[in-house]
TrEMBL record:
GO biological process, one term: regulation of synaptic assembly at neuromuscular junction
Name used for this protein in its record: Uncharacterized protein
Organism annotation: Aquarana catesbeiana (American bullfrog)
GO terms for MF: ubiquitin protein ligase activity
GO CC annotation terms, alphabetical: nucleus; plasma membrane
Length: 212
């Protein structure tokens, strides 16, 4: 029996601002930019890649730092806070806790994050987006698709494919078969998220990292 896909549940007030860039009435904002307005995480990252936007002052909402998000994908339960993500797979009995950088200070546009590992050290803009100097990330960049979705997110697949994969950030509302997202773990290696390396789609439902 196919597992039911459950939408994320956010334990926050329903009056929180929506992302001005998405303008869809459903994507919640987590950052206020003095020039761009209220933005979600992904729009904040991509709107501030250019040198012209480096002077923008951005502040993470206090509500976001305290928010809790719980969802279930592919049999894997996941709890996300602003500074931590914990997940466990009921089938393989594997679990992982990831601590994320947190700060109450305004975010600086001069430190873009690597699209694969999230690092801000030695990150430079390349044909496939921001990539750090780490050897693994540089290797991933060689096989990653260089195309960009209409929403502004880079394709998470491999290069030279006939069709790009749907946006893993859930921007394509027509991708009804998408049961996973950028933060979901590769269910084969269970060591990194799908966004941490170029991914492939097997059939219509399942994704995992290329190379497995």
């Amino acid at each position: 029996m196919e597992e039911e896909y459950r939408s994320p549940v956010r334990c926050i007030a329903t009056t929180r601002p929506m992302c001005d860039n998405h303008d869809d009435g459903e994507t919640a904002a987590i950052i206020l930019c003095n020039a761009c307005g209220n933005l979600c995480t992904d729009c904040d990252r991509f709107l501030h890649l250019h040198r012209r936007t480096k002077s923008h002052q951005r502040q993470v909402f206090k509500e976001e730092e305290e928010a809790i998000k719980v969802d279930l994908h592919e049999g894997c339960g996941r709890t996300k806070l602003f500074w931590l993500m914990a997940l466990a797979d009921s089938k393989t009995m594997k679990a992982m806790v990831e601590f994320r950088e947190q700060t109450g200070k305004p975010a600086s546009s001069s430190s873009e994050t690597c699209r694969f590992c999230g690092s801000r050290n030695g990150t430079e803009l390349s044909a496939v987006g921001s990539v750090c100097s780490d050897a693994d990330c540089q290797e991933y960049a060689k096989s990653a698709c260089s195309k960009t979705h209409l929403c502004g997110h880079p394709c998470g697949g491999v290069k030279n494919e006939d069709h790009c994969l749907p946006c893993l950030h859930g921007c394509d509302k027509n991708a009804t078969s998408l049961k996973q997202d950028a933060d979901d773990m590769c269910m084969i290696c269970f060591t990194e998220a799908l966004s941490a390396a170029p991914a492939i789609q097997v059939g219509h439902l399942h994704w995992w990292r290329a190379g497995h």
